[in-house]
Amino acid sequence: MVTTLLVFAFVISVLVVVHELGHHLMAKWFGVPVEVFSVGFGPRLLAIRRGDTEYRLSAIPFGGYVKMAGSSPTRGEVTPNGFDSKAPWQRFVILLAGPAMNVLFALLLAIVGLWVGIEVTVQQNGVATTAIYRPEPLAAIPLGVRVIANSGAEIVSTLSGLVTGELSPGHLIGPVGLAQITGESSALGWRALLAAMAFISLNLGICNLLPIPILDGGHMLLLLVEGVTRRSISFRAKRNLIGAGAAAMLALLGTTLLNDLGRLGIL
Predict the structure, then answer these.
(1) Which residues of 160-173 are buried (b: 16+ CB within 10 A; e: fewer)?
(2) Which of 36, 31, 58 is CA-nearest to residue 46?
(3) Which of 10, 117, 149, 208 could be cross-linked to 134 through a Cys-Cys bond (beta carbons 3.0 to 4.6 Å apart)?
């Protein structure tokens, strides 16, 4: 159990830091001051300041965050050079950069996994044995792209089925289920753990594009609405939408937790 939690904390921290690094780099590109880049949450353990950014290691190792100037505006106020002062398309690109980094990282892990070799089951004289499949280095790149594209299509299909009701919410996996996957993968070896990290990173990237206001996709949708209507959504409306999104995410988290506990036979 302890090993599983440690491995899961490591995997989630790496993938969230990759996600936040996308926001960080694109914010810097557009001249948005990044006040804090934290690995972990909660009390600060260590910190180094470089320019206007404090790079922080925090006490709770499950994830991390980036705090950009102007990313939490108050009513009627705009932060000079802050996120809220940038053109809508620039804010859209900054938001998109996080999920995009997760998808690209999943692709990188898939290609590296193919370079080092993946375990496959083969039949020899009617007996199943395990062998290492390792394609040519250049061939691994398009093969990795195909693997990630097919996996991404399956994730989108699953999400679509959940929305239309073709699939039940029982198919959803939450943090407990993901921890179980990472624990079982690490027990099988580092190759299996690489595959699990790629799977989780791809899910994280795609799911963050869902049009739920608290997620990157929800904020991107609001920007698109403002761009099409050429009218700014009021501060109050955004606050209410984000609150509704947070409630939806809590309900989703509760559902996945029940699913995970049910699979474990606890419920």
Answers:
(1) eeeeeeeeeeeebe
(2) 58
(3) 117
In a 10 Å sphere around its CB, with 0-12 CB exposed, 13-18 middle and 19+ buried, how is residue 222 labelled?
buried
- Helix, strand, coil shares of the chain as percentages rounded to 5? 60, 20, 20
Euclidean distance between CA atoms 228 and 226, whole angstroms: 6
| pTM attached to this predicted model | 0.89
C-alpha to C-alpha distances, 115 to 86, 104, 121, 150, 190, nearest whole angstrom: 41, 16, 18, 19, 14
DSSP helix/strand/coil, 177 = helix
Distance CA 9, CA 58 (A): 13
Q: Residue 45 in contact with residue 59, Cβ under 8 Å? A: yes
Tens of pLDDT, residue by residue over 1-53, are 778 888 888 898 899 999 999 999 999 999 999 999 998 888 999 999 998 89
